[in-house]
């Protein structure tokens, strides 16, 4: 059974950091790109970061460049999204997508 399970969300103050994790199971994780998305209340889902199967290539939305870092550990079937210098506009449900599957997401709230 294919599963993607995100964790690590929470509430932080502006300027704070969070590290999200996405654990995959049920398919060959190491052969697929991973994309992290976010969806704020009332808005469409948007991609924020992507990483190639080997991890050599990464891409970021302009809004998070320099603040977010995507990585992966294929031995652990896990992708990470390190988020630094968080801003209120980063508040959203963050989810990962891989091989056409999606996780349920984890809520990130940035507020003072």
What's the number of extended β-strand segments? 11
In round numbers, the mean pLDDT is 97
Main sheet specs: 7 strands, mixed
DSSP strand content? over 45%
Globular, elongated, flat, extended or rod-shaped: what is the shape?
globular
How does the helix and strand content classify structurally?
A: mainly beta
Essential attributes:
single chain; 112 residues; mainly beta; seven-stranded mixed β-sheet; four-stranded antiparallel β-sheet; 0% helix
Could you explain the architecture of this structure?
With 112 residues, the chain is mostly beta strands. The chain contains no helices and eleven strands. The strands form two sheets. Strands 2, 4, 5, 6, 9, 10 and 11 form a seven-stranded mixed beta sheet that branches. Strand 7 and strand 8 form a beta hairpin. The mean pLDDT is 97.
Summary of the model, kept short:
The protein is mainly beta.
What is the strand and helix layout of this fold?
Layout: E1 3-7, E2 10-12, E3 18-25, E4 34-39, E5 46-51, E6 58-60, E7 68-73, E8 78-83, E9 92-98, E10 101-102, E11 106-110
Parallel strand pairs: 2-11
Antiparallel strand pairs: 1-3, 3-8, 4-5, 4-9, 5-6, 7-8, 9-10, 9-11
